[in-house]
């Protein structure tokens, strides 16, 4: 005897929305990669935020734009990616209408990957970022007057 799929909202008589099955190995891999991407996005963008905010030499209009981008990417890693992980295995109130196509899922992944990749690009092309990260990791930014250090 074949079991019927359990509905997400049986009281609404919604036959198009079935509760998802527990994650298989592919889904676990995707969740793990999203978690790692979220963690990297938060850490790397936090380094950019601290670098530009702390060092006075880096307070230029261009770097303030980078700071703005880092703050938005930080929140993508802190809020958006974890929300995606949490809601991807649950039922949606509106059924499949908001789930999206594989193309939309790929575009979302590109957005998340871009948020993680921006600080890596800074590390390759901005020597000040490498110097600032070295100061942050070695805790030299805790010394008095470190905000006036030469990182350019």
From TrEMBL:
<dbReference type="InterPro" id="IPR000276">
    <property type="entry name" value="GPCR_Rhodpsn"/>
</dbReference>
<dbReference type="Pfam" id="PF00001">
    <property type="entry name" value="7tm_1"/>
</dbReference>
<feature type="transmembrane region" description="Helical">
    <location>
        <begin position="105"/>
        <end position="125"/>
    </location>
</feature>
<keyword id="KW-0675">Receptor</keyword>
<dbReference type="GO" id="GO:0005886">
    <property type="term" value="C:plasma membrane"/>
</dbReference>
<feature type="domain" description="G-protein coupled receptors family 1 profile">
    <location>
        <begin position="44"/>
        <end position="85"/>
    </location>
</feature>
<feature type="transmembrane region" description="Helical">
    <location>
        <begin position="64"/>
        <end position="85"/>
    </location>
</feature>
<feature type="transmembrane region" description="Helical">
    <location>
        <begin position="28"/>
        <end position="52"/>
    </location>
</feature>
<dbReference type="InterPro" id="IPR050569">
    <property type="entry name" value="TAAR"/>
</dbReference>
<keyword id="KW-1003">Cell membrane</keyword>
<keyword id="KW-0812">Transmembrane</keyword>
<dbReference type="GO" id="GO:0001594">
    <property type="term" value="F:trace-amine receptor activity"/>
</dbReference>
<dbReference type="InterPro" id="IPR017452">
    <property type="entry name" value="GPCR_Rhodpsn_7TM"/>
</dbReference>
<keyword id="KW-0472">Membrane</keyword>
<keyword id="KW-0807">Transducer</keyword>
<protein>
    <submittedName>
        <fullName>Trace amine-associated receptor 4-like protein</fullName>
    </submittedName>
</protein>
<keyword id="KW-0297">G-protein coupled receptor</keyword>
<keyword id="KW-1133">Transmembrane helix</keyword>
């Amino acid at each position: 005897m074949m079991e019927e799929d359990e509905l997400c909202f049986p009281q609404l008589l919604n036959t198009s929305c079935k509760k998802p099955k527990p994650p298989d190995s592919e889904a676990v891999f995707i969740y793990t990669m999203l978690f790692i991407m979220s963690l990297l996005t938060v850490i790397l963008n936090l380094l950019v935020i601290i670098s530009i905010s702390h060092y006075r030499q880096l307070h230029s209009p261009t770097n303030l734009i980078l700071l703005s981008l880092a703050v938005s990417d930080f929140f993508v890693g802190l809020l958006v990616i974890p929300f995606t992980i949490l809601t991807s295995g649950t039922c949606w109130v509106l059924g499949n209408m908001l789930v999206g196509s594989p193309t939309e899922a790929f575009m979302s992944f590109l957005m998340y990957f871009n948020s993680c990749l921006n600080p890596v690009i800074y590390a390759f092309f901005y020597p000040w970022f490498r110097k600032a990260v070295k100061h942050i990791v070695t805790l030299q930014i805790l010394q008095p007057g470190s905000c006036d250090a030469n990182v350019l």
